[in-house]
Amino acid sequence: MPLLLSACGTWRAIGNSEEGSGAEAMRVWDRWVASGGDIAAATTWERKVKDGVTIEEVEQAFASVAAEDNIKAVGEFPLSRELEARTGKPERFLKVYSYCSPATAREMVDFSPHMAAYLPCRITVLEKEDGLWIYSLNMDMLIKMGRKLPPALKKSALQVRETVWKMMERGANGEF
């Protein structure tokens, strides 16, 4: 009986999901398996920053895209600088950048209060052994695997998704 109830719930969830949700779920699953079970690796986007591109150029690209697409920079968390201040030891670069479309954010949390946990949109620049990397939440997962969004909200969510994607792409290439 529990298996039957679980199957019924699964079918109901699938029926409430956006078109393409199954394919997106499989992409997340494949990344989860490939990463050895690292859920963060499975649910994020990553871009290697092109060699020679500086942190300042990445930041300029983020700012340019934000201005072009009318998304608001709402905070920065210079974690490596904070750790250096606390320990007096040098740290590899680690900084979180936060962006938000206030109107879209309001609509999303009205639609699903749990979406508040994903606000604001965050992009992280991380220095690793092989250079700089950019990470952000896989917004396709949120948009495609969730309940069907009302058409106007889906359009707004896709615009924010495109902005974050563009920030990552242009930041990784130092294009501003």
- How would you sum up the global shape? globular
Strand content: 15-25%
User: Total strand count, please?
Assistant: 5
Q: Mind summarizing the main beta sheet? A: 5 strands, antiparallel
Distance between the termini: 58 Å
List the uncertain runs. Answer: none
Tally of DSSP helical segments: 8
In terms of structural class, how would the helical and strand content be classed? Answer: alpha+beta
What is the string of helix and strand elements? HHHEHEHEHEEHH
Task: Provide mean pLDDT, rounded.
Answer: 93
Our Rg estimate from Cα atoms comes to 18 Å
Neighbour order of strands in the largest sheet: 1-5-4-3-2
Percentage of residues in helical conformation: 55-70%
Task: Reconstruct the topology from this structure.
Layout: H1 2-16, H2 21-34, H3 39-42, E1 44-48, H4 55-69, E2 72-77, H5 79-87, E3 94-100, H6 102-111, E4 121-128, E5 131-137, H7 139-145, H8 151-173
Antiparallel strand pairs: 1-5, 2-3, 3-4, 4-5
